[in-house]
Design goal:
It is a single chain. This protein starts with a helix and ends with a helix. Helix 2 packs antiparallel against helix 3, helix 6 packs antiparallel against helix 7 and helix 16 runs antiparallel to helix 17. Helix content is about 80%, strand content about 0%. With about 325 residues, the chain is mainly α.
């Protein structure tokens, strides 16, 4: 992709419409590799070129703003991400692109959640879920992701009747997945979220139930971020049960060395390591974990959910 873009520049086509696609592809790959600032640079340039290459109000400009918003969210620039989504929404409304508008609403819910605006995130996710399910199918990533956001937002704020209904709905959605969908990343993300909710409610015995729920013999996740979350929630469960698990700690340590995981997943993993060290009375390991978390608080684009988890660990240390 980089070579294709370089050729465009050599030919003097750096302001042509085709460059927008090349830049967008490079941004997506860079993000997958964890090179978030590089992805952001590509997406910013894509917006600039789109504004030059297309007439005002063209849907491609809206898509470029949408992609930029995702990079801004992943780098922790939540205000800017919401502004980029506003730009994308105005253009796609003018163009009558209903499918694009629905995806923008989904991105807005994810950004609001990362920003710590949980009630707003839940409301936006709940509003857009029916349209996404109708367009993409109940078992699609597009339909399950807003359900995960809504679960996360309700579970983070304060468990209530609404959360119980969402847990029941998530169970129904996972049960209805076909064989190919059961091992998909979005299904495993939803399972992890359900396990995390149970853990935070003081039900560690339910963690394994949700991680295994309706998987149909599918292999464990291989995507770096999911691997960290799955191992970490199991380690947190062991810590709550007061059980030391050196094997899980070793697996999680190795997983943290793999590229491609995002900052929130790494912070979650270090929080699990800290909880395990505290449960086992390993003060040296606890100090190492908290040092890593302090560094991430200072340098990494963490969501408000992750930051609050770290602050909770810090408060327990002081107590």
């Amino acid at each position: 992709m980089q070579r294709a873009l370089d050729i465009q520049y050599v030919l003097g086509n750096e302001h042509e419409a085709s460059v927008v696609t090349s830049l967008g592809n490079l941004a997506a790959v860079s993000a997958q590799l964890g090179r978030l600032e590089q992805a952001l640079e590509y997406d910013r340039r894509a917006v600039e070129v789109a504004l030059e290459a297309y007439p005002g109000g063209h849907s491609t400009i809206g898509r470029a703003w949408y992609s930029l918003s995702d990079s801004l969210r992943q780098t922790g620039r939540y205000d800017e991400a919401l502004s980029a989504l506003d730009e994308a929404l105005a253009i796609q409304r003018q163009a009558g692109m209903e499918a694009e508008i629905e995806l923008i609403d989904l991105a807005r819910a994810r950004t609001l959640f990362a920003f710590g605006r949980y009630d707003q995130a839940a409301s936006v996710a709940a509003a857009v879920r029916p349209a996404l399910a109708q367009r993409w199918g109940e078992g699609s990533r597009e339909a399950l992701l807003p359900l995960e956001v809504e679960l996360a937002a309700r579970g983070t704020a304060s468990p209530d009747i609404a959360l119980e209904k969402l847990v029941a709905e998530a169970s129904e959605r996972l049960s209805a997945l076909d064989e190919d969908q059961r091992g998909a990343s979005i299904a495993d993300l939803l399972r992890w979220r359900l396990a995390e909710i149970e853990l935070n409610r003081g039900r560690p015995d339910r963690v394994g139930y949700w991680l295994d729920f309706q998987r149909g013999g599918a292999a464990e996740p291989t995507q770096s971020t999911l691997v960290l979350r799955w191992l970490a929630v199991q380690l947190r469960r062991q810590a709550q049960l007061g059980v030391a698990d050196a094997d899980l700690e070793a697996r999680l340590t190795r997983a943290m060395e793999r590229p491609g995981s995002n900052a929130d997943a790494r912070a979650y993993a270090w929080c699990a390591m800290a909880e395990s060290a505290r449960a086992g009375g390993d003060q040296a390991a606890l100090e190492i974990a908290m040092q890593r978390l302090d560094e991430m608080l200072r340098d990494a684009p963490l969501s408000e959910e992750s930051r609050q988890m770290v602050f909770t660990l810090r408060s327990a240390d002081r107590a």
